[in-house]
Amino acid sequence: MPDPDHAEILAPAPVLTAVCVVGAWIAQKAMPLELLRMDLGVLRVTLAVLLFGAFVGLGVAAVRELVRGGSSPNPYSPSRALVTSGIYRWMRNPIYLGDLAFVAGLAVALSSVWYVLATTLLFFLLHFGVVRREERYLAQRFGSAYDDYRRQVRRWL
Predict the structure, then answer these.
(1) DSSP output for 4-27
(2) pLDDT tens digits for 67-119?
(3) Where do the domains of the chain lie, and which CATH numbers do they carry?
């Protein structure tokens, strides 16, 4: 019987991210597919660093705000509070957006089509396997307060 005290997600986001990254790594080793044949040097490095920075920045800001707000980043823990402050004023899923930025950063840094595909796959896994399920749970848990929050704040950006 499902536990009503946490979202019934497909798997934790770090696990889904790791599966996509490992899958892309294996595919790249088996059949390398270069993203861009031209050398973009500084531009590529800059974009990769920005994406990795977004991963770290979003993750740190989100976890800090969850803890400060009395909730937990652990998807298997009950949500004790609806956190709508800090980074959660601008987006509802900063941790997952950061995970996507990380895999996209690998795609740019490694110039690999497989990591672009892994980013796309991760988006769908997160959206349908985690986010939508968490939204149902939060709507049940917090009712109209969550509905109001959902109407005011975008899911991703």
Answers:
(1) TTS---SS-HHHHHHHHHHHHHHH
(2) 999 999 999 999 999 999 999 999 999 999 999 999 999 999 999 999 999 99
(3) 40-72+80-152 (1.20.120.1630)
